[in-house]
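Quick one:
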Amino acid sequence: MKNVLVLGAGLVSKPGVRYLLNQKNISVTVASRTVSKAEDLIKGFTNGKAVQVNVQDEDQLSNLIEKNDIIVSLLPWVHHLKVAKLCLKHNKHMATTSYVSDDMQKLHEEATKKNLLFLNELGVDPGIDHMSAMKIIDEVYAEGGKVMHFYSYCGGLPAPEDNDNPFGYKFSWSPKGVVLASRNSAKFLENGKNVEIEGKNLFLNYRIDEVKGLGKFEVYPNRNSLPYKDLYNLKDALTVMRGTYRNLGWCDTLKKMVDLGLINEEKKSSLKGITYRKMIADIIGEIDDSNLEEKVAKKLNLETNSEILKRFEWLGLFSDKKVNDFDNILDILSELLQEKLVFKNKEKDMIILQHKFTVENADKTKDLVTSTLIDFGEALSESSMARTVSLPLAIGVRFMAEGKFNLTGVQIPVHKQIYEPVLKELETLGIKMDEKKFKLN
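Output:
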């Protein structure tokens, strides 16, 4: 019997925790600041235990980690390093869904020396994207071919039947991180040239991509794609680009939010007790808020009947409602987005992940290969985001417990010994990539 400690009982935890609890040779302890959340996850299972934990209390956290064999961190990413160092101290394996930070990568040598596996980036994006891409890349190489162009796009969105607000988006977790993505610069390789986009221009550089059966979406570049040329062994590739799917209108709207000054974390005491309308007037330097919509339109170089202004109005930015009790504009905006762009009872979300490969075969013919995942959440049960994030992680942890991975150190799931069994198991749970090949000449 292997003892698995799951740190965190948030929105994406349930499917993965339940998967682990259904394994005969695994006992699961779920630790959460709010113990009732952990209790809900293990309800009905004799091999589950719920405990309360304060991750700021290092002694308490250390004692919990010492008692278990594999430590799963579903905590906010800022806590992963603390957990990882305690795993090194107590010689415990670790798994997360988060990107490998520079500080986490620095632990590779010590983890390797201790014969420990720290498996990261095992969710959906990152995670399923890595595994499904590497499957095709390895197959192309096995047949003597080359990958010349690689595009990989992913997004979490409302299911089409529940896409009923002007933004075309609903948050399945805190919106602040999504909003802050508007500041990210981006780098990618396209047609042999390195492309760099400043954060302020991120949403000016979107493109339109069509997903069969779902229609057209906007795609904006996702941070730095350049390392994936080496990570995925794309030695011949002229294009390596990763991007994020959003519904039409998102990028122009977010760009104007940035231009208006809504992505501002500066603390201001003057925000207390004012209305949204007054806040917007103050932001654009107007003493009074009369004809505010026209003034904002002029500042943003928009027509007064533009869809973007209509979205602002629908959100409540021109209303006389008092702002939420925060001392900065970004938090006020984030809370407002959380109130308005929310999944209601019985509504479903959707994950879209699509890779496109231009392949040059050994005989010099060319193919377009696509690999697509379209996954829908289950109303009243679990979201697609929760399933696609936590199930790959749980499957990986199960195989770690069974000793199936012959790897040590800080790793991501680009190795065949990881991606092959994890993808196969995901298929049994209804999460499957649809692969297609089209001749280009």
